[in-house]
Amino acid sequence: MAFARAIVAAYERRQLAPDAALGLARITHAQLRQEDRRITARQMEVLSGAAMQELDDEGLGAFTRRIPWGSYGMLARASLTAPDLGVALKRWCRHHGLLTDDIRLTLTASGSSAVITLEEPRPLPREVRELSIAFILRNIHGLACWYVDSRIPLQEAFFPFPAPPHADAYPHMFPGPLAFDAAAAGIRFDARYLKLPLRRDEKALAQMLQRALAITVLQYRRDRLLVPQVRQALAAHPERSHSAEALAGLLHVSPRTLHRQLKEEGASLQQLKDEVRLERAKDLLYRTDKPVKQVAAAVGFRNEKSFARAFREWVGVSPGEFRRSA
Predict the structure, then answer these.
(1) pLDDT at 220 > cutoff 70
(2) What DSSP line would sit under 58-127, residue for residue?
């Protein structure tokens, strides 16, 4: 309900009455005053959508100038032709700066993680600051998921304010580790998603924009990133994943789809097989006293010599040398 009160505050700053929007969302003034009251995702979608149209401000009073209704749809359309998610998000962040310079959005990738950071060159108004930051981050996360038709799990979400009294609502908006009192706001996720191609066209965008706020208030369900699923299947079912056909059957996709999606994610089946075999071999060498010959057989090699050659290529030392130095 704190977010509903922030939306009402946007009306008050414009000296307008929020009654019509509250009525559409079925929120009474008595409920609005209840500190521990909750609203549903659908109520939030209806209330914020009605307020943005009535105020003609998708920023809901957070910025020094209004963000006219339809602006975020324009940002989504401007990134639709990007070759992959990384380019699309960089465009979105850059174009957002054309709407307002009250916040600065940047996408950076380092190692295995990508981070979208929201910084405030000037502090946002206190009464709408939390709502605005949460809304912007949920908006860009939801749009990213929609672009590639995949749930993008968050490795972390961080916020530049103390944990609010309703902090237990944040896991519903930002599933994953949370951090408050951070230097800036942002979300962190697996950088491999940046390589995924966009799966939407103009027709799909037109349909999405009819209920665009749904992707902001609701979590995307389907995860299309295949690399982690392949790694898990190879580790859990080594005897049933010896071929692309067998592995594809485990993952309920066709072999052609398996190879195509792995290529889109910058990986190959052989590369992933080698990575899983290496981790398994290192674990056996480190944690057991099994002879190297048995370790070779356990990770799928026909003889000790071929295993030793492959292990040296992977690690730079022989299995025996690795075991002695571990």
Answers:
(1) no
(2) TTTT-SSS---TTHHHHHHHHTTT-SSHHHHHHHHHHHHHHH-SSSEEEEEEETTEEEEEEE-SSPPPHH
pTM greater than 0.85: no
Q: Which residues are CB-neighbours of 222 under 8 A, at least 6 positions away?
A: 149, 150, 151
Neighbour tally for 63: CB within 10 Å: 20
- Distance (Å, whole) CA 152 – CA 175: 10
Number of residues assigned to the chain = 326
The amino acid sitting at 292 is: V
| DSSP letters spanning 244-274 | HHHHHHHHTS-HHHHHHHHHHTT--HHHHHH
CA 151, 156, 162, 163 dihedral sign is: positive
Pick the residue with more confidence: 119 or 203? 119
Among residues 45, 44, 92, the alpha carbon closest in space to that of 72 is found at: 92
